[in-house]
Amino acid sequence: MKKIKTSKSINEKAKAAANKVATYGEDINLSKYDRDGEEHPYQPDPSKLAPDTKAKMLSAGIMLDDPGQRSGTYLQMDNSPIHFSAKQEGVEVMAVSQALEKYDWLQDYLWKAVSVDADKYTANVELNDNDGYFIRALPGQKTIFPVQACLYMARAKLVQNVHNIIIAEEGSELHIITGCATASRDEPGLHIGVSEFYVKKGAKVTFTMIHSWNPEIAVRPRTTTIVEEGGLFLSNYLLMKPVNSIQMYPTARCLGENSTVRYNSILVAVPGSNIDVGSRVFLNAKNARTEIVSRAITTGGNITARGYIEGNAIDVKGHLECRGLILGEKGTIYAIPELKGNLAGIDLSHEAAVGKIAEEEVEYLMARGLTRQEATAAIVRGFLRVDIEGLPPMLSAELKRAVEASEKEVM
Amino acid sequence: MLKIKDLSVAVEGKEILHDVNMTIQTGETHVLFGPNGAGKSTLLMAIMGFPKYKVTRGSISFKDKDITGLSVDERARLGIGMSFQRPPVVRGVKTRDMVAACLKGQGNDESIAKLAERADLQDFLERDINYGFSGGEIKRSELMQLLAQKPELTLLDEPESGVDLVNIALIGEMMNDLLEKNCPIPERHCMGLIITHTGHILDYVNARTGYVMCDGTIGCVGDPHEMLATIRERGYNECIKCYLGRVPLHEEN
To answer: Are A175 and A123 found together in one domain?
Structure first.
């Protein structure tokens, strides 16, 4: 059963791309995974979910027992939305399937930012059972507390197809925490998540995504954000737990003057993890700005850290910073920062560095009385510390806690 | 007391220091002069115990304990502190974190703020350590960390180099705090060993013993003010010739 109904032409395009291999990342054999899982029942009170499920969701930043500091909640288990609610006026949180019934105009937002025929993964989402979250801030409405959304994989060997639509109407402010987690610690599965963000004139969206997969899960998110005049999109991504294979290259298109996009990513690859993650920004309007910062640590896994900024209008400015740390004897970090300028009057720059911890830095801290282990830990902690401008203090503190909770495993 | 006996040190297989003997009594501050490449910094690094500086002969003892085989951090915890001439930038590690580490958990926001005020580095606490710091800021930051660490033996490598005239007084006062005021006179137990080129800092610290190092060993020992005058007047070569063979006063006892 297909919950999200789209036009025939979109469907035709998807069919044509059903076997289209993606540009990046290892090719995943979709037939290895089951398509149809059982429906999970709707849960009006998410605090009544099984304690183990709640604990796993909590590991990805989703608070169900005490959601006082959340303005809304969306939970999806496999391909079933099992809960959605909004606690604040001016914010809408529901399943996309339901939102389509409520709003005719929503069709215009589906597959507009992300191409349905981008690759076999986007096509697969369109061609199969899928749902996702619809989060919308009404014009001028500002949330203080974030909306939380959890995409949870319960059944093993299943494809989870997700299609999210996020709209921040003019002058609104919206904060979102998305957590992804799995029930099993070692069963395979495939998560495909399409997310389309629309940041309208003067709106501000912060999006914080925490991934907590298992060593057998493959992940293919497909995300694009459209930012209009004076809009701000701030994305923070945290991947510090094992994963089998993840490839994503979220993209933002600054279409309005004075729009701003910032991407921060913290990536940790343990042995067996293959991570290919980047951020891509098109600066298509005057005075658009971007900053992309990534921190990658491998303790034995492989990381490709990409970054791409393209300047297509005057007075745009972009900076890309990509730093990698190799802890231990094995592991690879491949940093690929790319800049493309298409006219004069733009200002794009990047810096990239990959290496092990400098002995000189360790000794400097040791000369102040720290043991070698304490000095190394302080340097790694410092490396993972990304000061995020524009993130509300509460979210900053949560992100910091999430990093600290995982950093012990890194060391 | 710091006692260095017949010390030879090699860096990457090449012997840099030979047969260095030096005794700093508890409460004393000594000054090291010498031309570039004489081995002054090497001596400080060897006392601090950096692994690159290998002791090939002789010994270093501190507070009657042989520390020749101890690691850098063990020596730091025993009470040896050093200001770096060119400390590394450590991204993500804030100046505040460094001061807190030096305070060994004994400090709080207030005591850290006080130290920053002393060093005129109030706006630097939330910055990555040494990142984009000027020469003078590095010196003040190093001294601020040492003031937090409160070492019994302070090793200073050209604390005045690259510092403008306005800041030199501040640096001098901070050094004075480190070497003197931390320790009330009756029970003064702070020791210092300072490398200087200009001698400016002699105006601020109470140093009664000076050395001229040359070719990896100590050429002479004497009154630092007299030495400085000679060096200024005649250069290092004359100075070494003049003082060569003179036996350190405290070695005679």
So the answer is: yes
Q: Which residues pair with A93 in a beta bridge?
A: A135
Share of chain A above pLDDT 90, in %: 84
Based on the structure, what is the number of domains in chain A?
Answer: 2
Please tell me which of the candidates A323, A382, A384 has its beta carbon nearest to residue B90.
A382
Query: What are A190-211's pLDDT values in tens digits?
Result: 999 999 999 999 999 999 999 9
Which among B50, B97, B101 has the least Cβ separation from residue A369? B101
**Coil vs helix vs strand at B93:** strand
pLDDT tens-digit readout, A20-35 = 999 999 999 999 999 8
Whole-model pTM: value is: 0.86
Tell me: do A370 and A236 sit in the same domain: no
Please check whether residues A151 and A94 belong to one and the same domain: yes
Contact A365 B77 (CB under 8 A): no
CA dist., res. A360 & res. A357, Å (int): 9
DSSP labels for A205-236?
EEEEEEEE--TTEEEEEEEEEEE-TT-EEEEE
Helices (H) and strands (E) in chain B, counts: 8, 12
Q: Which of A361, A367, A375 is nearest residue B82 as measured by Cβ atoms?
A: A367
Instruction: Give yes or no: residues A343 and A209 share one domain.
Output: yes
Each domain of chain B, given as residue ranges in start order, spans: 2-85+151-252
Residue of B nearest to A380 (CA): B92
Confirm whether A3 is domain-assigned: no
Find out if CATH 3.40.50.300 is the number for domain B2-85+151-252: yes
Tens digit of each residue's pLDDT (9 = 90 or more) over A73-105: 999 999 999 999 999 999 999 999 999 999 999
Assigned domain for A224 exists: yes
With CB atoms and an 8 Å threshold, state whether B101 touches A368. Answer: yes
Range of the domain at A282: 8-358
Give A403's DSSP letter: H
CA distance A336 to A2: 39
Asked whether residue A114 is assigned to any structural domain, the reply reads: yes
